[in-house]
Specification:
Strand order of the largest sheet: 1-2-3-4-5-14-6-13-12-11-10-7
Structural class: alpha+beta
Strand content: 25-35%
Helix content: 10-25%
Number of helices: 10
Number of strands: 19
Largest sheet: 12 strands, mixed
Order of helices and strands: EHHEEEHEHEEHEEEEEHEEHEEEEHHEH
Shape: globular
Distance between the termini: 37 Å
């Protein structure tokens, strides 16, 4: 078995073909060849890193495509690696090739300083074997338009129609993301201006939709002039059963810097009620818009967007976390079967909202730590998807001492995949 990072356009094309075969996915070889050649010649930026596993005859059996990104974590951005595509040819499955590749790729992530690894799973049980756990669950809500009647738009509003607005949108998004753990910092391609009000890359489900973006902020309501931006709304329209002129607004981005701006955005949506039956909004699990409307039972809610993450370096995570302002200390023992270099006790001292020291000890009994968790539970606690009481429901978790401090540190926080 030989595992290595792929560099030539031919090997990258072979990996693209392998992944398409593994997923039984339609694939345009000529288009893929053109992209890989353009990347090799510098005419197109390459955004992925691809790894291949080869047998003794040099045949590629498994390929993993990864991407580098920054994600929000406790009001800062930290580096992370995302597993974009993981594919193994059917005839080679069951031999441990994926497990071996994950071991090497994860250690590469750790060595270069990544704090988290992320992926969207085909099977939660499969990736838990590698230390991943569910860490983001978005709430999708379908709200009948009449339920937004209590809201009024008190901001100035202007439709985005110029590249000059894009820096303001980007700044608003990054400030919004900082308060939501694991939300990605978007790259230049996501903000590239294409004219006619269009910016950013289109997703699979919006490739044929007309998108609209409106900017909200200070200024005279109804004037069409926004002096200081405070939020924006990006959406597309879907026709409904009543015909082509009335249907659903599907929100792609709803970014705001205060509750007042959010209320104005909801009021703006209500102002479009002649066109809309309802609006579909997706947000982090801790924001339940149904609790803001007159008839909560009329809002259809479902949890989706399951995303898995794992901690790459426990000490780096503890160093980057936010803490109470008053000084304190605690210890946590973390077990990591897949990356045993994480296993051990961590003694954390904090003051003024940040860690002042993180000391790591190996060969120490877990009984000597205030908190005992495995790496999967630790990741959920660190990002704030669960709190200490929820973690205790796991048989692998034990609180031995210092409960008051632990309960103040490990609390629920906004987590959003963006």
């Amino acid at each position: 078995m030989q595992i290595r990072k792929l560099e030539t356009w031919q090997e990258l094309l072979d990996a693209d073909r392998l992944i398409a075969t593994a997923f039984l996915h339609p694939w345009d070889e000529e288009a893929a060849r053109g992209q890989r050649v353009a990347e090799a010649e510098g005419r197109r930026e390459r955004t992925d890193e691809v790894w291949g596993d080869f047998d003794e005859l040099g045949c590629m059996r498994t390929a993993i495509s990864t991407k580098r990104m920054d994600v929000a974590f406790h009001y800062g951005f930290v580096p992370a690696g995302e597993f974009d595509m993981v594919g193994s040819l059917p005839e080679y499955r069951g031999a441990g090739n994926v497990r071996a590749m994950f071991g090497q790729v994860l250690r590469d992530f750790r060595a270069r300083g990544d704090v988290f690894a992320l992926l969207i799973p085909f099977s939660f049980a499969f990736y838990r074997k590698f230390g991943f756990e569910v860490c983001a669950r978005n709430l999708e809500q379908r709200i009948p338009i009449g339920q937004l009647s209590p809201f009024r738009c008190e901001c100035a509003v202007r439709q985005v129609s110029s590249a000059e607005d894009v820096p303001a949108l980007r700044s608003l998004y990054e400030a919004f993301a900082l308060g939501r753990n694991l939300m990605p910092r978007r790259g230049d391609a996501d903000w590239a201006w294409h004219g006619s009000g269009e910016f950013g890359e289109r997703g699979w489900f919006t490739r044929d939709k007309r998108r609209y973006t409106y900017l909200f902020g200070e200024g005279e309501p109804g004037s069409g002039e926004v002096s200081t931006p405070h939020g924006y709304l990006k959406f597309f329209f879907e026709t409904g059963a009543a015909g082509p002129f009335i249907g659903t607004m599907r929100v792609e981005d709803m970014v705001y810097d205060s509750p007042a701006t959010l209320r104005s955005i909801l009021g703006f949506i209500y102002g479009m009620r002649a066109k809309l039956v309802d609006v579909v909004v997706e947000c982090e699990l801790v924001v339940d818009l149904a609790l803001l409307v007159p008839e909560v039972e009329k809002v259809q809610s479902k949890v989706g967007g399951h995303f898995m993450a794992r901690t790459m370096d426990v000490a780096r995570v503890l160093q980057a976390m936010g803490y109470p302002r008053e000084a304190g200390r605690f210890s946590v023992w973390v077990g990591d079967d897949f990356l045993p270099e994480n296993t051990g006790r961590y003694d954390v001292t904090f003051a003024d909202g940040r860690a002042t020291a993180v000391d790591f000890s190996t060969g120490v009994s877990s009984d000597a730590a205030d908190l005992v968790v495995d790496v999967r539970t630790f990741t959920q606690l660190a990002v704030g998807l669960i709190d200490l009481r929820a973690a205790e429901l796991r048989e692998s978790t034990a609180v031995n001492a210092n409960r008051g401090t632990l309960e103040r540190i490990f609390v629920r926080k906004p987590v959003c995949i963006g």
